[in-house]
């Protein structure tokens, strides 16, 4: 019984992120300033803010692609570090960089990433289908349009069912159908902690449990969507807070 309880409490905390006084500076330039934040397992948090507000900087630190200048980030209680590559098996990243090999076909790209993460490559067919690319599975990724490459990149980033999925502007450059497919896949990921940086608050709001408002690297708001009127209200709050912090 004790063993089962321990197992259940471990499962319940998987994908929980904790940031403690995290800052990132680029010389004198502030990327992220003194951010303390807890994100529960399975929560979807949208990062919203003007250009240069720190969204990508925060996602890159969570992806272990860059180190905080100060502070600590933990996943399920373990500090993230570039020296712990196995933590990357628990994190998926969809960003401007597709991490695809142009000369490999779509199917080969997925199979390669499945093998790199030690998961069964047989799941690739289903994942390719989920992003609507079965008919292009034998084509080299280098021949794909921007939107198709982004859909494939999404399938690549989620091939190993990561605990945490980080998405930087996942809807940009996608047509309605492609956006719909990605949104549907994100809705299916109940058990995954999602952080989505987007300017598309209409779409982001529908997915989000929380919207974290960033300005000049600082948190200027943390809105629970269940108790909020809608995306327009979030944008108004944001503009008010930004005006308040600069005025
Ligand atoms: N490699 C870098 N070198 C110097 N400054 C950087 C670097 N990366 C980010 N910054 C600075 O950090 C701040 C936050 O940038 P970041 O890219 O995180 O913003 P963002 O919210 O993602 O913006 P956008 O909406 O335009 O994508 C900006 O002032 C930016 O100039």
Automatic annotation (TrEMBL):
Gene3D superfamilies: P-loop containing nucleotide triphosphate hydrolases (3.40.50.300). One of its GO terms (molecular function) is ATP binding. The keyword Nucleotide-binding applies. The keyword ATP-binding applies. SUPFAM superfamilies: P-loop containing nucleoside triphosphate hydrolases. Residues 17-241 form the ABC transporter domain. SMART domains: AAA. InterPro entries: AAA+_ATPase, ABC_transporter-like_ATP-bd, ABC_transporter-like_CS, ABC_Transporter_VariousFunc, P-loop_NTPase. Signal peptide: none annotated. It comes from the Archaea. Keywords: ATP-binding, Nucleotide-binding, Transport. PANTHER family: ABC TRANSPORTER ATP-BINDING PROTEIN ALBC-RELATED. This is ABC transporter ATP-binding protein. It comes from Haloplanus ruber.
